[in-house]
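User: Modeling request: complex.
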Amino acid sequence: MKNILRELRAERGWSQADLADRLEVSRQTINAIETSRYDPSLPLAFKISRQFKLKIEDIFTAEKD
Amino acid sequence: MHESKFWDRYLVGILGSLCLFTLALATFVKMDHHMPEGILRTMILVSPLAALVPFMWAVVRGVRRDEVLHTRKIWFRYLAEMSAAFLLYAVVLTISLEVGPPMPKGILKTLVLVSPTLAFLLIVWAVVRQFRRMDEYGRLISLESIAMAFGVTAGCVVTYGFMENAGYPRLSMFNVWMVMMSAWAVIAIARTIAGR
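Assistant: Request completed. Predicted assembly structure:
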């Protein structure tokens, strides 16, 4: 999965730690998602989408098979 | 959190703990044959537990530096629960080692000797509670590291089993625990560095 989390975060001027606090996860988790080392679970993906007021598919896109 | 602080956070604590553990263990082994039974001997016997102090100190320092309030909260709760459980374990172990051995053989003696296990279950409970508090990625990484440590331990134990068949000395089962914890620490540190 690819995502635009880093861009969305930068637009709002939030650090990884700021976003981690808002989502109640660790900074390492945000870093792993942003670098595509980890795909979040559906509940966390929904939490992220609510935080940015966007649809999940606007933030996460599947990479080509 | 600054990445360069990593070594400062954990390695100093782990090395400090190992040094203290080795020192305490060596002191005990040295005095084992000469010391009469008594509270002093028992205190020396449980002294390797003190090795947890520098480790906890390093973890507390690391947690205090974490910028994420949520992470700080869950780790401090864990440290509080873990410290209380360990303190109780040390107290029960000391009493058990002091009171148990001179007792006449029987069910009561067995119960006194295994009583530290009940306190140990509280430590396990604190760990389980922390796993449930951690976020999904942290849980995944931690459980993967434990699984790898399990594999390394299995490999070491089986290999040494073959060596025992060839005449190497029989070792205490306690060594399995030491191998597993060391493997877990090394794997967790290596993965944390690689992850960055």
